[in-house]
Write a structure and sequence with these properties.
homodimer, about 290 residues, alpha/beta, 9 strands, EC 3.1.2.12 (chains A, B), serine esterase (chains A, B)
Chain lengths: ~290, ~290
């Protein structure tokens, strides 16, 4: 699989890069960002941390607004940020709403037409992208971490828990914790990408349900949530995640309610240092 | 003078706000950003630091991309960021180029028609905006600092040196050091805003010339410049500033050439902590 460098910019000692490639999972050209810490020796290898963005984002928002690069360089983490959906596939209706189609892949493998040929972000993040990283970059074998924001927080928790051999550390900012019961999932993305097979298909991608059923090695999930987030009660519902973890001794959810913060990157930037440290601590010990 | 809150978001403990107001200098509605550190006591007052943005920017770029808020809160600095030009004045030609008209006020007071009624960013930054801050916020009297990027670095150095009683500390990222000889100044903004009166008008706004003639209290100006900046030799010319300072014992220019960095906010974010500390150190001692 071939990747092509789109841009390369020095930042906090390391390099913030953007690549593009032809995705076989998504059947379109995709971009992803990759931050490489300053290499201290030719032989140095890095832990890899995936960041999944929220609705409407591309691979650019996170690298421009979160300020993560300082801590990625300090903690020696390579950070990879995919786009949030396939692009340019021209499926009717894929650009009509901010919360469906382009920019709203929701990190699932669609089973319904006309979405199933392209909307396979789950397989893209768990198979194609890890393979690209393994083939092209100085990574430390088998020790990926994953985190994200909002729709990407849902993606990080659900993907992390379903792939414990691939992802050793998980965290999230303001995740959609129970998308089967959130209007974004229930009435739009899950309904049209996955159809009405709620029991079998929806549950595969619902963080609350996955926390309840998780039977892998112990996981501690760091979750930050702003109290002034406009989507808190209607869409995010972090208490469902916390309650589910209470019923499963294999999962510990550290839910930090951050007073006065909203859903923006100003919130993410404020707490991102803690998340990079969380991942580095677990990955270094794994 | 009345100001109106446009937005307010918690960030690194403090509040990132945006205000709008009717500007009497610019004869239009203007916005500015203001970061207020978390107040530790009702009586706490803050030093004020002005940030001037570069070409094409509004008041948004800096607050979203530089990550300055962490250090503003740590250093107890209120940071104010004006827009880069008047807006919505509908002067023929004011939106035809990225480097002239809207987004390119160049921090001068235009003397030529049709620009002179609105394009008065020098007086806006040195008179109207400081007055608004004094009237509305918990500032520490008479101790403002000023910094900026590119066109805003030119603005910060020229405005700072011409107003030593108002601005006690100065720094810049990749400033346009000698705009009278840069295509941006010579062939566009200076030429059309100020006309051909090079000796009297252009020199008022040329940082290199102002460093040469500066006769106020000693100033140490911190300047960071990336070596991979596409505009370095054609537009920025930091060596002219350094040479001028060598000829004037009242001005010390600490020019730091940063290997591998370009003109972007990735460069600014990498070194902004040093700039906030530079200003806090001088303002606290003033």
């Amino acid at each position: 699989m071939t990747i092509e460098l789109v841009s390369k910019t020095r930042c906090f000692g390391g390099l913030q890069k953007v690549y593009k490639h032809e995705s076989s999972e998504l059947n379109c050209t995709m971009k992803f960002s990759l931050y490489e810490p300053e290499q201290r020796a030719d032989t140095e290898r890095f832990h890899v941390l995936f960041y999944l963005s929220g609705l409407t984002c591309t691979e650019e928002n996170f690298i421009q607004k979160s300020g993560f690069q300082k801590y990625a360089n300090e903690q020696r983490l390579m950070v990879v940020g995919p786009d949030t959906s396939p692009r340019g596939c021209n499926i009717p209706g894929d650009r009509d709403a901010y919360d469906f189609g382009e920019g709203a892949g929701f990190y699932v493998d669609a089973t319904k037409e006309p979405w199933s040929k392209h909307y396979r972000m789950y397989s893209y993040v768990t198979k194609e992208l890890p393979t690209l990283i393994r083939q092209n970059f100085p990574f430390i074998s088998g020790k990926f971490g994953i985190f994200g924001h909002s729709m990407g927080g849902h993606g990080a928790i659900s993907i992390g828990l379903r792939n414990p051999n691939l992802f050793k550390s998980i965290s999230a900012f303001a995740p959609i914790c129970n998308p089967s019961n959130s209007p974004w999932g229930r009435d739009k993305t899950f309904k049209f990408y996955l159809g009405e097979d709620i029991q079998d298909e929806w549950g595969k991608y619902d963080s609350k349900e996955l926390v309840l059923s998780y039977a892998g090695p112990p996981r501690k999930i760091l979750v930050d949530q702003g109290t002034e987030d406009d989507f808190l009660s209607s869409h995010l519902m972090p208490e469902t995640l916390k309650d589910a973890a209470t019923a499963n001794s294999n999962v510990d959810v550290e839910l930090r309610m951050q007073e006065g913060y909203n859903h923006s990157y100003f919130f993410i930037a404020t707490f991102i240092e803690d998340h990079l440290k969380h991942h580095a601590h677990i990955l270094n010990a794994a």
